[in-house]
Design goal:
The chain is of the alpha/beta class. The chain is built from eight helices and eight strands, in the order E-H-E-H-E-H-E-H-H-E-H-E-E-E-H-H. The protein has a single domain, classed as Rossmann fold, CATH 3.40.50.
Length: about 220
């Protein structure tokens, strides 16, 4: 069984998150993909972040009925910062040794991997799937592949080598880094929050179930 772990603040979860997760499930493919909302994200300010249980409920309602997509409250159940290396360890304990775990991250986040807690331990324990899409001015797939190659070779290990078809970076000791192109949707949680504060509609940027929660609770105003 192949299981993906897609973490983030999801503040709020929007159709860009969900579309990307679904495409990874179908293209890789994965049997299941868990969206994992962070309780206390170590790399982000929490000033306008709604309660983790509300963010969890938004995801739960958004993925209900969608094959392949699930939500996990594993980071909500433990105290302290939501470090990815700890989350992967807990998922390892949760599933049998026959389950293969894949950590799903965006290109932008991956290029900051060397700032994560115990990132070498992470690369020793779980394969990664990097969702490649235009970010940081890297408009073409060639530019994005080169950015990944440069980061891995200069920031992580010179022993990473890319495949000819540009789909995976392999290493003799560390876990592989898979690369998947996903549809670019110019949507972000911060943009959605800004629109709400400005009194603008965010309909069609959020799943209807999530919009209902946002409006009924008066979130992000």
């Amino acid at each position: 069984m192949r299981i993906g772990l897609f973490g983030g603040t999801f503040n709020p979860v929007h159709i860009g998150h969900l579309r990307a997760a679904l495409e990874v499930v179908e293209k890789f493919p994965l049997d299941e993909c868990y969206l994992v909302p962070a309780a206390t994200p170590p790399h982000k300010a929490t000033g306008d972040m709604v309660d983790a249980n509300i963010r969890y409920d938004m995801i739960r309602r958004a993925v209900t009925g969608q094959a392949g997509l699930k939500v996990s409250d594993i980071e909500l159940k433990r105290p302290g910062p939501s470090y990815t290396v700890d989350t992967v360890r807990l998922f390892r304990e949760k599933f049998s040794d026959t389950a293969r775990l894949y950590l799903i991250v965006g290109l932008d986040a991956f290029l900051e991997l060397d700032t994560w807690k115990s990132y070498r331990t992470l690369l020793n324990s779980v394969a990664l799937i990097v969702m490649s899409r235009p970010e940081r001015g890297l408009e073409t797939s060639t530019e994005r592949w080169q950015a990944l190659n440069d980061f891995l070779c200069h920031g992580i290990s010179k022993e990473y080598t890319g495949s000819e078809e540009r789909s995976v970076f392999s290493h003799p000791q560390l876990m592989p880094i898979h690369v998947i192109n996903v549809t670019m949707l110019d949507i972000s949680s911060s943009k959605i929050r800004e629109l709400i504060r400005s009194g603008c509609s965010v309909r069609y940027l959020l799943p209807a179930e999530v919009l209902d929660i946002v409006e009924s609770r008066g979130l992000y105003v």
